[in-house]
Amino acid sequence: MKTEVLCFANNKGGSGKSTTCSSVAYAMAEKGNKVLLIDGDMQLNLTLSYFTEDKALEIAAGENNLYYAVKNQKPLDDFICKTDYPNIDIIPSSTLMSSVEFELFTKWQREFILKKMLKNIVESGVYNYILIDAPPTLGCWVMNILIASDKIILPVEASPWGLFGLANMMEFISQVKELSPSLDLLGVAITKVDARKNYFKQTMETLNAEEGIKVFENVIHLDSSVEWAQDNSKPVGSYKKSSRSALEYSALTDEILNELRR
């Protein structure tokens, strides 16, 4: 089976992007897949889903992280860290990722650097899925992440501001497809749903009216278990398997896997 590279991207912060990435990875591993996570965001949220704050900051300050790899254009094979979970490895981020655009600026074919650095891992077939958490920006680094990916999953928060900037994101994806024609938007994942409010209905209506955008049927409701899991540096599925969000992320993951098999 070919290694599939998925990125979780949205130029709006607070969309539940990192939580969705970490939770889908955990559910994929629970379903028997081998998964590599790549934390592409200086906020370290994905890294903090699998390592304690002390451990994450220690890695961020050293040389075994994504920033150091990008700065030196090293193959990513040597930057893989084991997590405490079977079938889940991670390439952690660094707070220095904030200056990654500067590092890329003078590089030859700078939009393709991450794809080249990932080449060995993808071709080795060791992992079923590689999941990349992109920062909430639109620039050369996010372009690198999209070009290195086969498919995009777009988490969108069900709130009045959830769709803010979505047109910019879709335009950016169109531009990237000119450089990477095989790139596809796999679907939109609706997060932070509060069924008591009309925002969810409005969000769904707006997205369903957009041509060519698939909206996943399984949505993620607001759940305090997510915050508790984050506080304990665990993916929510590990923190509380029976929680609403863990079950919803497992169902969303089934839907994602079914979509990928089409």
Summarize this entry quickly.
The protein has 262 residues and is of the alpha/beta class. It has twelve helices and seven strands. Strand 6, helix 8 (166-179) and strand 7 form a beta-alpha-beta unit.
By secondary-structure content and strand pairing, the structural class works out as alpha/beta
What is the CATH-assigned architecture? 3-Layer(aba) Sandwich
Q: What is the CATH class name?
A: Alpha Beta
The CATH superfamily turns out to be P-loop containing nucleotide triphosphate hydrolases
Total of DSSP H or I helical runs spanning 4+ residues: 12
Strand line-up in the sheet with most strands = 3-4-2-5-1-6-7
Order of helices and strands: EHEHHHEEHHEHEHEHHHH
Radius of gyration from the CA trace? Answer: 17 Å
Largest sheet: 7 strands, mixed
Mean of pLDDT: 91
Cα end-to-end separation: 14 Å
**CATH fold node name:** Rossmann fold
The total count of strands amounts to 7
Overall body shape: globular
Low-pLDDT stretches are none
Q: β content, as a range?
A: 5-15%
Number of domains: 1
Indicate the percent of residues in helices.
40-55%
